[in-house]
Amino acid sequence: MALAAMDRAKLEKVMSDLREGRISVGKAMERMRGLPFEDLGFAKVDTHRSVRKGFPEVVYCPGKTDAQITGIVRKLAANSNVVLATRATAKTYRAVRAAVRDRAVAYHEDAKLIAIGDLPRKRTGRVLVVTAGTSDIPVAEEAALTAEAMGARVERLTDVGVAGVHRLLNHRKTLEHAKVLVVVAGMEGALPSVVSGLVDRPVIAVPTSVGYGASFDGLAALLAMLNACSPGVAVVNIDNGFGAGYLAAQINAA
Known about the structure:
alpha/beta; Rossmann fold; four-stranded mixed beta sheet; 11 helices; disordered N terminus
């Protein structure tokens, strides 16, 4: 069952129990109290997001203590099948694993992503995540794992940047079979425009901070992608694999 459907089912159960007299108004209010959000003092946890958006709130770890992260994760895990924590360290993973003992907790080191719960086994559509170079894989994996957590079937195509464009052209059929493509590149950021020129599907461009001095930590790639000549390219922020994977999953499910 989809995550949003799970939360809607909980709401419907509360309303059904109230209508049939199995619970009181007070009890119904108690059950629903945490649905819009729960105030932890240091965070207002949006437990209602999967009903509105189709996927639960995701925890961005930098700037938060492990105690804050585990507190948020526990609340989200109580209301959702899958919870993601991005840009997490191995130390934070160990803290989350110790705090959430009744759920599977996995750490994806390349992506620095923690997944709490079981990712959907049945996945649909086809999202293709393409990297210009091996150094772009961490951001690409964040995108791929996010899309998979949202129920998308994901394929990966790595190290096919414009420095050896024949490597990309060798995978034309793979590119053409995708419903949506996430293209991750640093340096001059040219790959998304090249890919978009080869396919009739939407391309989500992800600039990375990979590159030497004049790449300005990804700014050069970002500006190049924003100025892509080929139409059909949308651009997310520098190193924002999560945002790209989320958008790709939404397009894939449409």
